[in-house]
Design goal:
heterodimer, A: alpha/beta, GMP Synthetase, Chain A, domain 3, 2 domains, 9-stranded mixed sheet, 4-stranded mixed sheet, 15 helices, about 35% helix, globular, B: about 500 residues, alpha+beta, 3 domains
Chain lengths: ~400, ~500
Amino acid sequence: MKKIIISIFILFTLSGCWNYKELNDYSIVTGIAIDKNEDRYEVSVLISNAPKSSGDNNDSSQSQIVVYTEDGKSLFEALKNIGLISPKELYIGSFSILVVSEEIAKEGLENVVDLFVRYTSARNNFYIAIAKDTKAVNTLKILTPLTSFPSQNISDNLKSTTNLQGTIAKTSFNELLSILLRKGIDPAINSISVIGNPEEGESKENLESSEPKSYIKIGYLSIFKNDKLVDWATHDESLGINILNNMISEMYLTLDYEDGYIVVDTTSFSSKIETKVENNKPKIDINVKCEARIIEVRGNINLEKSNVIEQLEKKSNDKIKSHINEAINLAIKNKADVFGFGLKFYQNHPKYFESVKDDWGNIMSSIDFNINSELILKTKVSSKNSLEEIHNEKKDY
Amino acid sequence: MKIDSDIDKIFKTINEMNGKSSDIVTRIIEKKNYRVGYIFLESVSSDDKISDFLNKALINLDKKRVFDSFYNQVKNSIYNSNMKTCETYEDMFYYLASGFTIIVVDSEKKAIVIETRASLDRGVVESTSETIIRGPKDSFTENHNKNLGLIRKRIKDPNLWYEDVKIGTRTKTKVTVAYIKDLTPEWKVKRILDDLKKINIDAVIDSGYIRELIEKNQKSVFPKVISTERPDQACTSLLNGKIVILVENTPFVLILPAVLTDFIHSPEDNYQKSFNISFSRIIRIICFFIALLTPALYIALMTYNPEIIPDQLLISVAIQRDGVPFPTAIEVLLFVLTFEVLREADIHSPSFSGSAMNVVGALILGDAAVAAGVVSPIVIIVVAATSISELVFYDVDVIDAVREWRILFIIAASFMGIVGFMIIFIIFIAKLSSLECLGTPYLTPFSPLNIKSLKDSIIRVSRKNMKYRPTYLTKNIKRLGDPNEENNN
């Protein structure tokens, strides 16, 4: 027994505390931004556990953030160079957002993806966003009063508005990786941009003013062909892409009606894509099913009139179809299959897809699309008529 | 040594044996035709009883009948109900020390022993070490007879058997093994009695002595014998087919065999609604693991595998730790030990110094330590959660066992992180599985799995559904009559 105890203790001590590191010896990175300056990479890290500079202990849970930027010939070199600036070891284990500049995205994400696949200390569930009209590093610098640090701001925003906005679809590194590794599907990644002067956003005043001078906004989707950025989608196109990718649970549609407009808000949303091959010609049926309610009525509209609801439903369906059409046209134009049509053909008609996979970008334009949309308006609204209409009726008395 | 047949000689021998101790009282009653002597220890005997019954009887004795021996005449004229005879000096002294009075007459090598015990114990009072909200409040006392009575009055079954063993060459402590004849397997009783008889020790002051001597596998910190001062728990155990050992002069009785789940249960569990109790038990099991594992897990995750922790918590912890001079492991150990010191001090300090200790414990050790930057607040939370969790167990032995294993876990985790943690965890489970008491594995009913007994383990089903006793304890398992069966008859 004594021998066993002694040998266990020797085992423990011989292990030499392998991998042991105290938390306060780390600089915890919560966001990474990658820019390119001519042919050198500029990697910026957002470090979030810098203690508050002033001596007051009242706010010990609050932190100050630091952004360090270094350049290097390779991404890893740039990342390692930051170690020269940071007094503590960089801890990449749990960062939440990776922002890639437009320039690098256009050249291809391959490099970036490769680094994080091989760099095992990084977790794979961080989100990816493309910086639009600004340097990627700027997005990490904007202070916001609502969250403790900018990276959290971006990732929280992505998480909370996906499914609710219609135009936003969060993309985690894992998802991106699986899309890039498969044939017949191309990624669509959200863009983010800085509104206002980024330099104003860095200062503490941005935190203290009730109307921040500068803030980060999640933009529409960016369309990729393989790993290269090819185009930016508009609002409608983003909607169409997300409808087809089933990334929506709530979206609104603004319908022009006579002299006013009506806004309907969907409460449930689902889309189904069915692929067929007829006479060696690809064919796709798209079925959208949703329920919606009327949420805003403007103008002289009497909802009780016969056919009004039917008309509204038809208008909504047309609108949804047009969004889908726009999205498909954008994809065909760029030969980028962000919906994964190719993957569906590969799964359902592997022989056919094998024969056309090399020319899939062009084949896409010859697909016969059949789009159906079935929107049901739940008319259970508090008032059948708009207030304007009621007002007019009163005048008649 | 056989006693003599001469009163003076007997008195002289006893006085010499006991070094003429001051509490020996002897008296010889001399009347015209007879001589009777008696002897008792005034420290353990009741003067009143002796004067009232014995003196009166002896003085009014009339030596008339010629054919009857004088010894028998004395014997028959004493009013006491509890009367014995003894023939050796060793016996005689045992009776004297137990509070008996010994009556001797000339020319007889026997002595009459009558019970004149003084009440040297407190009454039956509320249990202090195992308090409950609902249920019987009485507890065992230091008086052996009262203890036996507290059980007997609850189980009025002729099958409740008591068997006595006298242990301790000097203390001659009475140890009673109680069991219900038709519920407890005979071999278990026999084994216990054999073990008890084999004990060769000079003194038994508390049941703790017996417990240490009969626990076969000594190399375990987990208790394998329940020690309780609640008669209701002793009775519940008896009725489940367990054996209860009562030791003279201590309110704590031993119950065996015990399994780990017994320590998660509280005696109160039988008196409350089954659903509420099931919930409490689940909480206790969670607390068991919290108390055992949290500090080690904290160290392993924070110093070896921080990537498991969500980023916001990680940053919050990292900021709190900033400026703390000690490694996490030392920090945790320091505070775990501080709490143990506080607990140790609390147990032995009289109640009036409790508030001073609260101030030291809560304010100085917690608040000031954080303010001074010696520990991070999260470590205090971890240690506090751990310490509170361990206190939900009513059995102090489990608390101690958990405490010792916890320190092992901490050491392993601080050297090898999550790997070391897992190694110790495997050793922990293996160790628990290897324990057994009276042929019952310690992890019953989970391992070996005993589905019927699971009804009263983590959860307790309603009493209506608990028709059977645990099968690992007894063969006679039927507890509740089946109403349908009776109708058929």
